[in-house]
Amino acid sequence: MNWTWFHKLGSPKWFYEISSLWLRGLSVAAILLILVGTVWGLAFAPPDYQQGNSFRIIYIHVPAAFLAQSCYLMMAVAGLVGLVWKMKLADVALQQAAPIGAWMTFIALLTGAVWGKPTWGAWWVWDARLTSMLILLFLYFGVIALGQAITNRDSAAKACAVLALVGAVNIPIIKYSVDWWNTLHQPATFTVTGKASMAPEMWLPLLLMVLGFYCFFGAVLLLRMRLEVLRREARTSWVKAEMSRLLEKVR
Amino acid sequence: MSNVFTLLLKREARLLCRRPAELANPLVFFAIVIALFPLAVGPETQLLQTLSPGLIWVAALLAVLLSLDGLFRSDFEDGSLEQWVVSPHPLPLLVLAKVCAHWLFSGLALVLLAPLLALMLGLPGRCVPVLLLSLLLGTPILSLLGAVGAALTVGLKRGGLLLALLILPLYIPVLILGSGAMQAALQGLPAVGQLFWLGSLTALAVTLTPFAIAAGLTISVGE
Amino acid sequence: MSFASFSEFLAMGSHGPYVWSAYGISFLVVLLNVALPLLARRRYLQEEARRLRREGAQ
User: Fold this and answer.
1) pLDDT above 90 coverage of chain A, percent
2) Model pTM?
């Protein structure tokens, strides 16, 4: 297998140049997918026979929840790459991904609560999935707080990497223990999503939305990383040239 | 290698014995938190008995967390940590000795104090063995996981609150399994399953966390 | 199309407030996530421009 692409990622300059293309592609894909998915899910998908139209919240709840979980996993992988190969870009990716992941967790929690009101009759129930999402939000807060508390940039990135790795090892344990706790205390909760029984006209827009959210995440992450790269590499000659080009454009 | 381990254990034990107040503080905190609950929810025996597994575990969690704040601080300030990092001995082994010593003094004392407080909350005597076992298996995990957070925040001026923020979410499985075991015992059900789970988590924590603690210390010292 | 009229679409079969508030807030959060880095970038460029001007004047 050819690993040159991986070694190239070690160069912020190469990343900055190539990522403007990716950014454009991902933004277009995200806008298209989310737009089509939203319209399809809101207007064209048939209502659920049990929950009626409130089930349409699934089209944001599930993609946000997917993204929240995979974002933490991505942070752990970035942390591992940063610790093992000392790659600057991995550090940047880890710290810039954390706020996006926290926002996605927030969306998943909020839509879950709003959806819970017509479904369970309460804004908040200690359902296994909602509870693990809440814990995930706390884990994100931990990474963000640690990154901001340490002033030295390199040690902040390394500390966040260690924390993200410890958290990622813990997440499955937390998930299973919360599931177990939930079955113990509330037997026979109403299951919200039965994936196997969903009709194609119901899950196709969901698929579009999930893909759209991933593209959105990629685009915002690149946007944030590009700014951070400009800041970190401000002393290098290529950033100085790039800055004068950008400032020319602003004027 | 095991020689270093025992030497370090002895050093830590001597240091801890010189500051008995620091050892007693988490225990007093544990007792006070337990005493707060009857005052807050009312003195009904039935209610306190049903709540007692959760109360004891939450209080133990907070007490361990409180005691961990200063785990590496004095070693960080007097420069011993730097010596550890540059020493030829493997750092994970050294931190394991450090956490072991800490647990032997503060964690074990907590385990021994817990039955007394549990009986005051109205926990029946037949549940005490399960309480002791669950705490005995659970508190090492709390100490080890908390030490990761303590290692990451040791260089910071106000690391205490941050430590709680970082570590409390990671404590949740231990809390669920520990209080679950006691609840099962309270209802007269077998608690072996939860205790086995706690035991396997302890084994996992003993094997993995020393490396994370060592990495955290290296980062904090290098700053 | 699973709705007969636009007013029915807005009502969402009595679940309107829930569906629309969930979508509205999520849309705002998504927008915020795009806007914040863009604003930060603009502010950074302005700061740099000011710094360069100041250094050029010296």
Assistant:
1) 38
2) 0.89
